[in-house]
Every structure is written in C-alpha cells, then in structure tokens.
Amino acid sequence: MIRVSNVSKFFGGKRALGPVSCEIGTGETVGFLGLNGAGKTTLLRILACDLRPSAGSFTVDGIDGGTTPHRIRSLVGFLPETPPIYPEMTVGEYLRFAGRLRGLTGPHLEQRLPEVEDVANIRAAHHELLRHLSHGYRQRVALAQAIIHEPELLILDEPTTGLDPAQIVEMRLMIQGLKEKHTVLISSHVLPEIHQTCDRLLVLRDGELVASGTEQDLSTRLESCRIAASVTPAHDQAGTGGVESMLHAVDGVHSVAATQRDHGVIDLVVEAGSDIRAEVSRALVHGGYGLIRIDRADLELEQVFLQLVHGDENGDG
Amino acid sequence: MGTVSVVFRREFAEYVRSVLGYVVAAAVLLLAGLLFYAQALGPAAGERLSGEVLARFFYTMSGLVAIAAVVLSIRLIAEERQAGTLVLLSTSPVREWEVVLGKFLSAFAFLAAITVVSSYMPLLVMINGKVSLGQVLVGYLGLLLIGGACLAIGLFATSLTRYQLVAAVVASVLTGTMFLFWQLSLVLDPPLSRVFAGLAIHARHFQGFQVGTLHLRDVVYYVAVTYFFLLLATKTMEVKRWE
Q1: Complex ipTM above 0.90?
Q2: Helical H runs in chain A?
C-alpha cells in the first residue's frame, strides 16, 4: 500500500527527517513511535501529501506522491494533532464541508453524515457549534471528518493528545473499530495506545527509522535473553549467595540478580547470551532448589521504547 | 469548479456570520454617506453639476473600496494557518488555485454586496440630475475592478504568513505603493513616468470609470493585476509545502 524510499525533509538547513525507507501493507495498523522532534509528524504529513519531501519518493497504492499528490489526497484521511475545526460552524455543517471537499455530494454525503457521527459518537452534537464543544468532542469531530470519504489510508497524528483517561479509552476503541476498514497509521508517545492498537511499530529517533517490527520482535531483538525464575531455597542453603554463584557457573550466563522475599522464595533474573532456560532449570533442580516458575522476562514496551528512542540499543534496525 | 464553490460558500458564510464583515460594511457605508452628503448636498457642494458629483462619489468610493478590500482579505489564509485549519484544505483533494479562487470570490462577493448597497447615492443623483444609468454602471464596474485588484493583493499578502498583522502591513504597503506610482510618475521623466503611470492602480486607470467612460485598456489592467496577484498567492501556497 505504502512504499517510502529514502524520504528526507529539511526545514531551512535543519534535517527533520530521513532518509527513511519503509513499506506498509494494506490493512496494517502501524504505530510511529518516537520522542517529540523525532520526525513522526513530518513523516505522516508527507504521507498525507500536506508537505513535500526534500528528497526521496513515496507511493500510495502505486500512485507517486511527488508527481500526483492530488490523487493520493483523495485516498487519505488525516487527523492532525490539533483538530482542524472552524469554531463558528456546527458539527453538521463542518462534516458536510469536509465531505464536499473530498468530492461527496447529494444522497451519498447525507448518508455518510449519520454513519460517521455514529462511528465517532457525536450524533447528539450534530447541531452544536464547534466552539461550544470540549477538546475531546472536537477530536472526535476531527476523526469523523477524516473518515467521511471512506479513505483507504487513515493517518492519525497523536490522536489522544489532550484527552482525559476516559476519552483516551473511547478514542482507542474507535481506532480499533476503524482497523477493519482502513490501513491506519498512528503516531503517539502514549505507549499503551500503540501497544493495544497497532500490529507493527516503526520507531523513529532523530529523524531516522531505528527499528521496525511487532512489540515482541523489538523486545526480543533488544534483549539478548533475560530469564526470570522463582525458586524455594535448598535445604542446605541460606540467603541468595549460593544460588547466584551456582548459576554463574552455568555456561552462557552473564549475570544473576537474586532477591529473597519475606517468605523465603527467591526471585532470580538471569542475563544470558541466549535462551538457556533448560540449562538454568537443570542447574537449579540439581542444586536442590524447588523450581516454582521459569520464563523469559520480555521487556515491557515502555522499556523497549526508552531503549530505542534514546539509542541504548547496540545495533540499529 | 465544484471545489471552488465549496470553499466559496464556507468563506462567504464566514463573512456573513462574523463581526468583521458587518464592521467593514458599516464603516464603508457610513463614510460613503457622509462624504456623499458633503460633496452633493452639504454647504460646500455649491453649484456642482450632477456629473461632477457622481465623479467625486466614485473617486471617494474607490478609496473606501480599496481599504475595505485589504481589510476583508487579510484573514483569508493567515487566519487558517494560525488556527491550524488550513491542513484540512491542504490534505483534501483540492488544488491550491481552487482554494485561492474560492476565497477570492467569497471576499469579492461580499465586497460587491457592500458596494451595491451604496448605489442609492448615485441613483439619487441620477433621479435629480442629468447622468445616465450607463455612467452609474460604468462607475460601479470600476469600483468592482479596483476592489478585486486590491483583494488579490491582500490575498497574496495573507498567503505569505500566519500572522494577520504582518499580512495587513504587507497588503497595505503593496496597495499604497501601487497608488503612489501615479505621484511618482508626475516627478519622473519619460519613459519611466509613462511606466509608473501605467502601473498606478488608481488615477489614470480609474479616471475613465469616474466619468462614465469605459476603456478596454483599464479593464484589462485591473483584470491583469488581479490575475497576477492571485497567481502569486497560488504559487506561494504551493511553495509553502516545500518549506
């Protein structure tokens, strides 16, 4: 659906993005992750044909964004970070205006109005002036304008910015509902939103794409192997020193951190070069420890995010 | 032209709903009325011929229309940039020239409505004096043409920036300079004097309309100025996508 080849964007002499290359398939929901200034909004505005890239090229559905951006715009619905609403219009007038801009007319437009108002849950506000609505409502109205023409590609730039927790949950549910009909690109630094909504993540740092994959892919790649285990102490061992020294002797173990809880259970975190859960289990059982659980300790998304955007990762993606 | 009409309708409704539109209309009509009274009916009017009264009316009205055009135009794009609503247009399948033309036509229609409301004054002259309907119509054509040209200059100024104040200053300087070309032509020698006289937005090009004489060259001049600045506004909006 989208093919981006070495796209860069400079504002004055300052590089804001790129060169970035990536591909996004039809029906995917892709999250763009990165700190402020990482280039997320710039990339999304380029894909929405709001900005022109300084270098590189991109296509949407095979249509070249450099030569025929006009054609791409009819395939795209864009929700910018600040809802682009006219305060003096009512919700109905605004959505009609947005629909007409996208070429909808007559019965088709009138049919789409209640549909998108239902999707965005703003039917009750149809006659309200936009200036009287809260930020959350305005955001929903802006989402409705983005989907009124049933675009193949929906681009949402920080869709939950400024929303309260209840509104964030509502917005997330709306976006999840939209995944069925549209290819969706979302930028956000609200990690749970990305975590729960997207099929794949693209991580940007200083204008460059540093990683791409599912949350699991990213955490797996970042972490060599971290094993978490809980054991009951061996009869002849007190404290955590014994288990630490025993596991250090296992091939492939880099470090061991042991913490004993009040009721005696020891929690272990073993850093290893590869997945050696079998060897660690065998050593623990052989040493007389009661193995309660052993598992890979996957990094939480937040840790993945911080490692990637701060450049803690050894290799780039 | 469908999209031009969509943009036109929204912008025109904005003028009708906004305080700005009514303030501009009220100010133009009040000042026009006061000046008309002074020129046609007041003690200073003396024994002027009706044709002279009409010419003076169109002369003063042209200045008011030019100022009103600048005031009406400065919000057209700068305000949208400031409020972040321009992105709705720039990510829709709408070309820059369609946005510019739709906005221009809306401001032009509103300005034309204000101008037409002032027509009771020349009609009074026509009824009580000896001027023809043709003279009145030609005068109004001149007002609309100079208004359109000033609107286009303002639209170009507003396309340059997100700040309405900056747009207002740029539009005022550009329009003022084009008015002053005539004064400049008076102190220069040929051929420069002819060039500046030809470029001046008022004086030579408006004199014919004032007295009811229609010259094609004057119509062409105002249409060309309008087209030129609308084209500049369109190109500016295109270039802004690269910034």
Answers
A1: no
A2: 40-47, 69-73, 91-101, 106-119, 135-147, 165-178, 191-197, 215-222, 241-248, 277-286, 301-310
